[in-house]
Design goal:
Length: 393
C-alpha cells in the first residue's frame, strides 16, 4: 500500500455573492477530486489548535501528524531547515520577507513575486550592509528569506506582512525583546533597497519593488521526532516553498526538486504530479504541497484561485491517480491546510473539508467535496494532528 498526502494550500474559501453564493471549490472543474470523493469519504478537520495562528507552519505540522502545541516554535527555524542553515541552541531564526512599500505602508507583501535571482542580489547586499558576527541574512526563494540572530530573543511580537497590507507599517513594527534592532534593520533596508537598480528597473517595468524587509515567524530550533520513528515508513516531499521543504527535511523525509516549481500560480503542476508518482516507486509515503490557491487568494484574485484548483485537479491529482495504476494499491488524503478567503486575503482558523480515498476499499458517498461538508459531514476530526491516522490506518 502506498500513501499520498496532498495539501492544496488555502483552497477553502467562503460562499461568495459574485459566484451566486458558491465557493471557488464549488465552481471549479475538479472531476478527479470529485470522483475520489464519490468513491471515498468526505469529512472536515480543524487544523489550527485553539489559541494558535492559522499559518501554514502550524497547520501543516498538524496535518503531518505533529501536534503544534508540542512541537511548534516558530516559522523561521522550519524554513531555515529547508535552506540547510545550521542553527545552534542560542540562535533565533526569523522569516525575512522582501516586501513592497511606499515608505509608509506595505503595499505588497510578496514584493510582486520578485524573482529568486533578483532577490538573491538584494538579500546578499543587506547581509553585506547590515549583517554582523551575530546577524546573518540568507537568501531563499522569491520573496521568502531567513535572518538568523545569534543570542537573539524570540520573545518579540512580529506581525505577518500579508495581514497588514495597506496599513501604516509603523503601527505594526516588532515589539518586545530586541525590537530596537529589528526596527532599525527594517528602516535601514528601505534606505538601501529603494533606490537599487533592480528596483528602479522593476518600477519602470510596472512591477512592485522589493524595497524593504519585514521580520516575522521567529523561533528557535524545535525538537521534532523523525517521521519514520513515528509511522514506520519512508517518505518524501514534493514542494516548492521552503516552509514545507523545511518541515520535511526536519522530520527526515526525502526532498524532490521539481523543475519549474515556483510556489506560485505559474508553478509546474504536471511536474509535481509526475515527481510524486516517481517518489512512490521508491518510498511508501509522499507529501505533495501546492501553494498556488493560497497565493491567488492573498492577491484577491478569484479567477486565478479557481484556475489553480482546476490545474491541481487535472495535472496533480489526475496524474497521481493515473500513475498509481502501474504501482498498485494506494490511499490518498487531499485537503487545504487552512481556508484563505479571497475577500479577506488572509488565513482563517475555520475547519476545512478533506477527501479520503482507498483504492482497495471503495465506498459510495454522495457528499460533495467542497465547503458544504462543513455543515453536512458526519466524519469530523477535531484535532488536526490525528487526521493522518485515517490515511495511514
Amino acid at each position: 500500500m502506498k500513501y499520498i498526502l496532498a495539501v492544496l494550500d488555502g483552497m477553502a474559501d467562503e460562499f461568495l455573492p459574485e459566484l451566486d453564493g458558491k465557493t471557488p471549490m464549488m465552481v471549479a472543474r475538479k472531476p478527479n477530486l470529485d470522483r475520489l470523493a464519490a468513491r471515498g469519504q468526505v469529512g472536515i478537520v480543524t487544523t489550527t489548535p485553539p489559541g494558535m495562528s492559522p499559518g501554514s507552519d502550524v497547520t501543516n505540522l498538524s496535518i503531518l501528524g505533529y501536534d503544534p502545541r508540542k512541537y511548534y516554535t516558530g516559522r523561521g527555524p522550519l524554513e531555515a531547515a529547508s535552506l540547510e542553515i545550521p542553527l545552534e541552541t542560542r540562535d533565533v531564526a526569523f522569516r525575512c520577507n522582501l516586501v513592497s512599500t511606499d515608505g509608509a505602508a506595505i503595499t505588497e507583501s510578496s514584493a510582486g513575486h520578485v524573482s529568486t535571482e533578483e532577490a538573491r542580489v538584494l538579500i546578499e547586499l543587506l547581509d553585506e550592509k547590515l549583517g554582523t558576527s551575530r546577524i546573518k541574512f540568507y537568501p531563499g526563494v522569491s520573496y521568502r528569506h531567513i535572518t538568523v540572530w545569534r543570542d537573539g530573543s524570540a520573545d518579540v511580537e512580529c506581525a505577518a506582512p500579508y495581514r497588514i497590507v495597506g496599513e501604516p507599517f509603523r503601527e505594526h513594527l516588532p515589539m518586545g525583546d530586541g525590537e530596537d534592532k529589528l526596527r532599525s534593520m527594517i528602516y535601514d533596508s528601505y534606505e538601501i533597497l529603494d533606490g537599487h537598480p533592480i528596483n528602479r528597473r522593476r518600477v519602470d517595468e510596472g512591477h512592485h519593488p522589493a524595497n524593504m524587509v519585514w521580520f516575522w515567524g521567529q523561533g528557535v530550533q524545535p525538537d521534532i521526532p523523525p517521521f519514520f520513528n513515528l509511522r514506520g515508513m519512508t517518505g518524501s516531499v514534493v514542494a516548492a516553498v521552503d516552509l514545507i521543504r523545511g518541515i520535511g527535511r526536519m522530520v527526515g523525509l526525502k526532498l524532490y526538486d521539481v523543475p519549474g516549481a515556483t510556489g506560485y500560480t505559474d508553478t509546474n503542476y504536471l511536474g509535481k504530479g509526475q515527481y510524486a508518482v516517481g517518489a512512490l516507486r521508491q518510498q511508501d509515503f509522499v507529501w505533495v504541497h501546492i501553494e498556488a490557491p493560497d497565493e491567488a487568494a492573498h492577491e484577491g484574485d478569484l479567477d486565478a484561485k479557481i484556475e489553480a484548483i482546476e490545474q491541481i485537479d487535472e495535472k496533480v491529482i489526475g496524474t497521481i491517480v493515473e500513475g498509481m495504476k502501474d504501482i498498485g494499491e494506494f490511499r490518498l488524503l487531499a485537503l487545504p491546510d487552512h481556508p484563505t478567503p479571497v475577500k479577506t486575503r488572509s488565513h482563517s482558523d475555520s475547519p476545512v473539508p478533506f477527501v479520503l480515498y482507498s483504492s482497495a476499499q471503495e465506498t459510495a458517498n454522495s457528499l460533495p467535496y467542497d465547503e458544504r461538508a462543513l455543515d453536512e459531514a458526519k466524519l469530523r476530526v477535531e484535532e488536526g494532528h490525528r487526521l493522518i491516522e485515517l490515511l495511514l490506518g
